[in-house]
Design brief:
The structure holds 2 protein chains of 2 kinds. By secondary structure, chain A is an alpha/beta fold. Chain A has helices at 20-29, 76-85, 103-112, 130-135, 140-149, 164-173, 188-191, 227-235, 287-298; strands at residues 7-13, 36-40, 53-57, 60-63, 68-71, 92-96, 116-126, 152-156, 178-180, 214-221, 241-248, 255-260, 263-268, 274-281. Helices cover 27% and strands 28% of the residues of chain A. Chain B is globular, with a radius of gyration of 24 Å. The chains are: A alpha/beta, B alpha/beta.
Amino acid sequence: MSVLPRLPLTVIGGYLGAGKTTLLNRLLSEPHGQKIMVMVNDFGAINIDAALIAQADGDTISLTNGCVCCTMGNDLFMALGDALDRCPRPDHLVIEASGISDPAKIAMAARAEPDMAYGGIAVVVDGQNWPKLADDPLIGAQMRGQVQVADVLLVSKTGGMVPPSLAVRLAALSRAPLMDLADLPQVAPVLLGGVAPAPQPGALPGGMAAHPAYVGWSHQGPEQFERRTLEALLAARPAGIYRLKGHVLSPDGALEVHVVGPTVDIKPAQSDSTRMVAIGLASQINRETIAAWWASAAA
Amino acid sequence: MLRYPLGKQGEIMAQITVYHARNIITMDKNQPNATHVAVRDGRILAVGGADCADQWGPVTHDSTFADAVLMPGFVEGHCHMMSGFIWDYAYAGYHDRIDPDGKLWRGKTDIETVITDMRAYANSMPDDEPLLTWGFDPIFLQSERLNRHHLDQISSTRPVAFLFSSGHLMCVNSVVLDMVGYDAATNVEGVMKGADGAPNGELQEMAAMFPVMRRLGMDYRTKAHQEKYIHQFAKVCVRAGVTTATDLFATITDQGLAELKRVTAQPSYPVRIVPTIAAMNAAPEEIAAQAHAVAAHSHDKLRLGAVKLMTDGSIQGWSARVRAPGYVGGQPNGLWNTPPETIFALCEVMQRERVQMHAHTNGDEASEVTLNAIEAAARKHPWPGARHVLQHAQMMEGGLFRRAAELGVCVNLFVNHIWYFGDQHAALTIGEDRAARMDGCRSALDAGVAMAIHSDAPVTPMGPLFTASCAVNRKTMSGRVLGPAQRITLDEALRAITLGAAYTLKMDAEVGSIEAGKRADFAVLGQDPTAIDPAHLADVPVLGTVTGGHVTLL
């Protein structure tokens, strides 16, 4: 196992014009306290606030908050390797998938690669044009496929409300939590996880500003689970948790857990205690529900 | 009276060499055959008999090729410079193949031979080096599917990885599985499991392959344009009689460009290289700007400025975009690598900026959408002579060929597929009817489309005479003739691998035939392809090439 912490990878999917770049700009300018590396297809579309730019050279833009934005070139996977080898290693890697591509084909690399952690697939759904694209005889199947693999669905351009007909269609394709981008005060908690909940003693790692729209839960303890028991426990997690991560002790060595939307990823790890962090939207879940779920299993 | 060959300033002019050959097939209808060709300053001065250049001054007669047959140097309009560096790996494929240094790698037609040959190869390597192989394709083997137990028999101590010929799959041994931590608990799409629940060694798609490639140093990004591999690629070309070859989806870095420029400019470098920029992962305007910027670096043996679009996938991978009636097994339609909307945007910008496009379109729907996009672009920005090329274009039929002809769009057909995959196409992918008309050279020529044919090396071996043979004979591996109505004549096929391909690269005024004024680029053959049974066309030996008057013999 590598001595460096695993590099979490989040993939942003969605068709041309859905709002992927706008989302990335939001992410880069939020006070998340993480050194994020963002990889895009081309800089042409991205429009980073000039005040944030510390240095720009060729295929890399360095920001004053420690984040970097770079182009991935023609070999995305080798670019992943570059990100892993970058010194210092970024805290989080975010990749903007091209408009037609299957984001799962990229995100799966984070599950396969021992040095990476699964950060999930966020698919940006154009609230106005998606139904038409999804019915397009040429690209409809690929559009629907993006939604099917999403861990989080972020609807853009809703003008205040996700149209019920759209919500129904998306729900038929995907169990991923659906959020209206306009309702999200911050996107970092959704894309990266690790947000701190409302101020309380022993705040969570990450050092981010707390926000009342999000519910955070954290737990540390000595409990151990067999891998299969843990998988069953995670499968029974309360709806409304959209991210869950941490280390869990197990008789065969510790496990690292990353849950994003409907996806669960477990890898071997080293840890001397069980430590978990969960995040959800305050409108959908509360801390007590999460704590009760975990306590029931630990008992 | 002896006239001194003096130039304007009085300097002695370049020497005239008159080559004598058994036959010279010129591909020039003014003089289809000759016995002598005169060369001065890298260009053809005269063609005809022994005295053809006498009016130009004193000549030197050269009988190097007296027993050989000369043709115009072949033009490979669709291949990749990866054909050079792939030979760093051991060849594990089904068919016999010859490496750049002339060594024959025998085809491995069953798993036992794969294991025996690769074990012998591994034993010749330093102990700690991984064994990496290429060219293996499970489609040709009837036996059990290749798995880690087979590869463990090759070595249980060094990493062993077989990259399958599709590029989308690999098989690895237990050492590699341990290295990347894949075990029974691994739940990753593409890490295939055996009946025992443990990974069986097969890895599908890049996500599952990437951790292996990263650890075994399989990074191809800049390799093709490194000096060693530029030379290696040239060897592949010379063995095939090719004097002009593309690198048809190139990533061009500043350093790679500098190397390409320097190495190809060496007088002894035997190939004119035509790299086309990958038109992906950047805005169309940026791609066009890069095409213009690199075009300025072109010289006699390096031609830059065109781009390559990647529209769909492959037919045998069921990822090509096909029209009704779809795939014969009911598989869903394939995938766009570039969405139609972006194909339209790329076509418009390239047409406006006068950048020639080569568009990978395997399925007929991809060909149709690209023709639509080119038509729309041409209405907005007329450019007579654009010569955009649909590459592969394997499923185009009469209607699409006629549209291509109307639009002045060329095709470069992947006719090697008939032999390698024709049986599979008929049985498993698109069915009998469309397999019989696929890579339809006859339909293309009848519709008046400018046509080339290609190998896509290293996907299939570079060898224009083999490619021509596929177009003439349309024989599959099982021996059947697939779509006899699409066969073309020998002369048409030889034209396709010379002038035809040169036309698609806008180099037909310069290469592709043996006539006065053109570059002295020849394929040197050991047999006359026009004097044998066309069934044996692929067996005509290549002895070397001449490029700009420079002789390279094998």
